[in-house]
Design brief:
Elements: E1 2-7, H1 15-28, E2 35-38, H2 46-56, E3 60-63, H3 71-85, E4 88-94, H4 121-131, E5 136-141
Helix pairs in contact: 1-2, 3-4
């Protein structure tokens, strides 16, 4: 199975949620027969942790890094490739911003119109997978 794993960049995690995310990724990549599909976010986080874990498990990978650091030419096509190449997509996101977070803050995730977690482009990717008829699951991590 081609398992898409997407989610927040590293700056959105605390040490607690980082540990939870890595444990969850290990669970999602349960079989060496699985293939990881992800996006090698240049800011680290879920994509990179999943790739490192897949390497440690000698798993196959399909990695789609963004070609540049903008939405229309970099992240959007990258996210569409992740949705296309995955059989299932898992979005790993945090419920709240960490106390020391200094980036842009949004009241809710404008991709999925909820305030159960902070904004993530991974939501957009998962919805694209659903449009293609593929299952998508959200994993919302709590903890500061």
């Amino acid at each position: 199975m081609r398992v898409g794993i997407v989610g927040h960049a590293e700056d959105k995690f605390t040490s607690v949620t980082r540990t939870k995310a890595i444990q969850l990724i290990k669970t999602l990549l349960e079989s060496q027969d699985d293939v990881l599909v992800s996006g090698r976010c240049p800011l680290g986080g879920v994509d990179v942790w999943a790739e490192v874990l897949a390497d440690s498990m000698n798993m196959s990978k399909i990695i789609h890094p963004p070609s540049c650091n903008n939405w229309s030419q970099g992240y959007k096509p990258r996210n569409l490739r992740i949705a296309r190449d995955s059989d299932v997509v898992h979005v790993i996101v945090c419920a709240k911003y960490p106390p020391e977070y200094s980036g842009m803050v949004f009241e809710s995730c404008y991709h999925c119109h909820t305030n159960t977690h902070i904004k993530s482009g991974g939501c957009w990717t998962a919805y694209q997978a659903r449009i293609l008829g593929k299952p998508a699951f959200w994993h919302i991590l709590e903890g500061n």
